Amino acid sequence: MTTRLSALQDWVDSVAKLTQPEDIHWCNGSDAEYKRLIRQMNRSGDLIELDAASYPNCYLHRSDPTDVARVEHLTFICTQDEEDAGPNNHWMKPADAHAKIDALFEGAMQGRTMYVIPYCMGPIESPYSRLGVEITDSPYVVANMKLMTRMGADALARIEREGTFVKGLHSTGDLDPDRRFIMHFPEELAIKSIGSGYGGNALLGKKCHALRIASWQARQEGWLAEHMLIVGVESPQGETHYIACAFPSACGKTNLAMLIPPDSQPGWKIWTLGDDIAWLHLDEGGQLRAINPEAGYFGVVPGTNAKTNKNAFDMIQSDAIFTNVGVTADNQPWWEDKKTGTPVTDWKGDPYVEGAGPAAHPNSRFTVSAKRNAAYSELADAPEGVPISALVFGGRRKELAPLVYEAKDWKHGVLVGAGVASETTAAATGEIGVVRRDPMAMKPFCGYNFADYWAHWLSFAERSDKLPRVFHVNWFRQDADGKFLWPGFGENLRVLRWIIDRCENRVGANETAIGFLPTADDIDTRDLDISAETMAALLSVDKDQWKAEMASVGEYLQSYGDRLPSELLAIQADVVAALNVPD
Ligand code: GTP
Ligand code: SPV
Ligand code: MN
To answer: Is CATH 3.30.200.20 what the domain over 6-45+74-222 is classified as, yes or no?
Structure first.
């Protein structure tokens, strides 16, 4: 197969000339092609087949032990003007970046097959969808892209019709961290990534395209590309509200997107639209609508069990790829908190020794098609997307942030989003558990200067009077012994219900300096083993702590200098003033 689109053919030819693969395979996206690749990787040892009786069509991939997470320090936004990338990104001049990375791509695919993957981010018929082509020498990447995106012939047909696509070039290279770079050229709609086979570094449709490049395009075109799950919450009366939530990596998006309502909430249903990325557009009537550009999940494995996330637990029981989990004696995948089985081999393939580190890497992942999710929404393929009632920000905060609060209005909501902070997790290499600012959960993913990004967010207030309400949640408050105060997981539905009641003006709130909070009675705690003191702690605003927090948010915003919209600082000043009003 080749293409009649000369811009694509010329690019593929030039990449082949540079990387010198043994042969070139154009992916058509068929199931037969996927099976062939799986069989081939099974033979080469790239994949290990898991127990076919209990985990049919499931495979384990062990990555290089130095290549298990995103690498933010090696990820660059390469714009002509450094200011356009902003202080939130690592920057390199495009010409220098191309020279540096092209030298590494020279001959990189010798003796290997080069795969050409046309893909569509979003429903194939949606006007909101965007196209891309990833060239890679990794069959593991091809298999993951098959599960995660709409890839192959249909995507190619649309690319040929439209002529515009994002060019993503990837090679696993030699996996040497010193020769690993993830580079983005938003002005050229191009990505080049070498030296890593890990998800966010190598599946270029995901973070590289659908967030970093797409956020840049979204700003130019008047929409938003966000690190958000999209979930439908259906009431016992059959009324469904769609909510999009931005939580940083490994902070609960996949779990919330497919939560199972507890027995205490009869009649409630949850429908998953997406678990990681949302593209948000204003329609002609001023309603914000969301599509999920992805078609599968690349989810955190540890912690997934029949109690915390039964939908995920069940969906990875067949047709899934596991990366960096442990294995039991009967060849089943194993991870911490799975609650069944015993590991004999760890994620590196070594004998498992209790107490000598986890069996599964803390950032071990599953890849599975969204169609395997029992809660997958019928509207996930709707070209027009779903109307969004509420946007929710959140993070992992041991203290300070209450269980839930509502922003005063859209613009204050932008400040709430900009002020998000969270403890770092294993999803990126580096220290774990340190609180850092992660505005809108986009710190690693915004393809341009945050100052411009906040201005873009603020501008929506001028474009519609039907914008969703904005909230902030925190499932991760702890007591002095490090125990979570809130049960989380399925019980988070109780908080979503309050959010929906607010959107429908069905419930009042405590007006505080930081926004609107529920009273203890407003959150249904029926059947929960939670004391009144704990609820009070979860729904309190410690003014001194918040004064310190808002001062820190102010300093952070000011570090963006002249480009920062002054309006955002004025909103921050209003919150500070409100905190200074004596009780
Ligand atoms: P990315 O895929 O990295 O973007 O992560 P994510 O935001 O989808 O996170 P995910 O849902 O995979 O959750 C990550 C970890 O947080 C898992 O170990 C979960 O078990 C844990 N987690 C999720 N929801 C909750 C919750 O409500 N309470 C608590 N205590 N832990 C949670
Ligand atoms: C994240 O780190 O936020 C993920 C996994 O969702 S990755 O695709 O690697 O970015
Ligand atoms: Mn993510």
So the answer is: no
